[in-house]
Amino acid sequence: MKKYSRTNIKAACCISLMLLLLSTSIAPALAHSNHPQTTQTQNISQTTPVTVTLYGTTGLHTYTTPMTQEAIQTLLQQETTLRLAIQQAPQAPETKQLQTQFLTTLLATQNIPPATQQEMLTLLQKPLTLVTRQPVKTPRPLPQFNYEGTARICSFVSFGEGSSGPIIILPRFIPFILTPIPRIFMHWNADDAVTSCGNLRNNKGFIAEGAQQGNAWGFWGIGFTVHLPPMTNTYGLFGYALYSHVSSEYMEYYPPNSPPEITGADPADNQQNVPNTLSELRFQIADADSDLMSYNVTTTPDIGSGSGGLKTDGVYSIPVSGLQELTKYTWHVQVSDGKASVDKTYKFTTAAVAPVITNPVPADNEREVPMDITELRFTIRDYQSDAMDYTVQTQPNVGSAQGTGVHDGTYTVPVSGLTYGILYKWFINATDGTHWTRKVFSFITGYPSLFDPYQYGWHYRKQITIDHTQVVGDLSNFPVLISLTDQDLLKAQTDGKDLLFMNGPGMAKKWHHEIESFTHDNGRLVAWVNIPDLSATEDTTFYLYYGNPSCTDQQYPEKTWDSSYLAVWHMNDATSTTVKDSTGHGFTGVKRTASLPSQWSGKVGNGQLFNLSGSDWAYIAVDDQGGLSIPGDFTISAWILPYSDTGMKVAGKHQEWRADYQGYAINWNIVGSETKMSLRCDGGGYAYQYIYADNQFPNNNWYYLSGEKRAGTNYVFVDGQQQSHTGSQSLLNSDNPFCIGAWQTEESNLNFNGVIDEVRLSSTGRSPAWVQTEYNTMNDPFAFYTVGPEEQGP
């Protein structure tokens, strides 16, 4: 429910109106001061009478006070900054600071009585809630009357933009005995109004706000409707009624209403292997206020629906039928107590009737499968516990298998004679005697599990040694940056496809890598190598092989990044309008606006330059379809080179300027007069939290910014160093696209001005050791490792 605080609304309106009046009062004085003066001294020291109009809780206060041109310019500059801050982040702590600073500067002028000064300061001390409504569009959408309130034998007052009927209402009395005569019926309809209604017998009531419709029976009181062009209709009502009913956009109940609760879903949410003989869906509803409730249940695909009204706490069900095997069903439950509605959506998947074949090893479409493997593996299961028969064949033929009367389990197929670089398919057929299942899997072979590259066409290698003092803690599957320029690499293929990383000399194991860029003309290489076990106590050595003119591409980007990486953007141009995600998840970034970000020299290889033409801002958006929404722990990081110190948004999945702040983002923020890094986490409603870095940072320098939630606590890192400030704000998923260089697509004043490189997002909170080592490998690769001399093969 969207709630309004009348005190906060009044405070916000007072401050906003005060700013408006101040700007209109001071601006003419400033314009007057811009006329040519005889000397520069006169321009600075000459005072000008300025009319100051303040609007407080006790009304308008107007004063005339002399101000120097310097004081006027200071006030106007502060007022401009404050207006921009209110537009961009009305709830931010720095906005509150700017408000206090502006008012303090104003009140420092003379001729403003102390009582009025105290009144203005008191307004600023109240929580500021700026109530924003969606802009009116043409045609205007119909209001959604989500809430209802009723009262019997009640008093009420209603006023706002709208009309009531009858147009004029005056109390009526029976002549002589002066007994009041109530009206049988009256009605009001408003685009924006406030109605307060209280039951005279039990002290219960409600306040309705926004667009609304209301009726009263047995009304006795006064009322009016006034229409004065160009103003809209205005109405007001005050009186008593035997019964009143209001439908509105927003409503608060007194005492506060406890919404219904929905629990005990059967099948449970996301339950798997539900029998397709299921005949009903069950759920439990309860209301802490003992209100009677109504419910409505729908299903997708449609297998049944149901509804009920005037229900007490209890378990209810709806019949379903016609379920199909291996099908995902969604059922939606909506419950209302007449004051508030709650919704819950549940999902379940039905079991298979035929046997189910899963978990192929090698995985389907796997490549670089060692050609010396000796078996294939798979799992079969029958959810009715029937005995099964199966057969397995391969193409080209490298082995086969069959089984009779088997039960749930994992089975193997012996294979032999596989050769390098061949696409193999294997076919599995399984039956329970009645139902059949057929699966086809494939894989491509690579070199053996252990091999000597010199025996397979490579001619050169170099030893690379990682300095363990640069590794903060023992790490697993860590991507190390290899960035070097080496003339010996001119012996590699022109596109670097023969570059190969092995965990040792001679017979060794291949390590996965990704080439970010390779320039053959000068041997410039930027690559990432996945180190399975990176030690903080001993140097790690491995070998770079090159010089094989006939081999295929040896890189495997998807396996270079561990399974916790949701996306990795190196910020190179994949095309003139896109940047590629290296994880294989396919979260391609698309450059937006006419002035697109452009490839630029980055911290690691290339990056992207943003905000090329000032007002025609640029950003990169990822249409992730919810795949980058993170409800729990996460890590987001990027290298940034800021060109200006305005509040800028680096990367994140975020939305605001609505009643539901949602998502996460890392930022380059102005906090007071300082520029700081921050992480922002939004938990819905107006619940959000900034976690700021400890120190300020000058422009035109590279910084590595990381924000994360780890074990429920929010942290921010700058250049690998964890900052002292922490938080615990939970996250609410945003339906906006993930953006780089901006928070959200419709807010052009939040764009980044500078270069961004190496943006990463993980579904885990990385350890401080990981983040520090990550910074070390990218900040100074030449300190992180050393490269030995070229070794030529036999």
Topology record:
Elements: H1 6-33, H2 40-45, E1 47-56, E2 59-68, H3 69-88, H4 93-107, H5 114-125, E3 147-165, E4 168-169, E5 183-199, E6 205-226, E7 234-254, E8 261-266, E9 271-274, E10 280-286, E11 293-300, E12 306-311, E13 314-319, E14 328-336, E15 341-350, E16 356-361, E17 366-370, E18 375-381, E19 388-395, E20 401-406, E21 409-414, E22 423-431, E23 436-446, E24 460-466, E25 475-485, E26 500-502, E27 510-511, E28 513-519, E29 524-534, E30 540-546, H6 557-560, E31 565-569, E32 578-579, E33 589-592, E34 598-601, E35 606-610, E36 619-622, E37 634-642, E38 648-655, E39 662-671, E40 674-683, E41 688-692, E42 703-710, E43 713-718, E44 721-722, E45 738-740, E46 754-762, H7 768-779, H8 781-784, E47 785-792
Parallel strand pairs: 9-15, 17-23
Antiparallel strand pairs: 1-2, 3-5, 3-7, 4-6, 5-6, 6-7, 8-10, 10-13, 11-12, 11-14, 14-15, 16-18, 18-21, 19-20, 19-22, 22-23, 24-30, 24-47, 25-29, 26-27, 26-30, 28-29, 31-46, 32-33, 33-36, 34-35, 35-46, 36-45, 37-42, 37-46, 38-39, 38-45, 39-40, 40-41, 42-43, 43-44
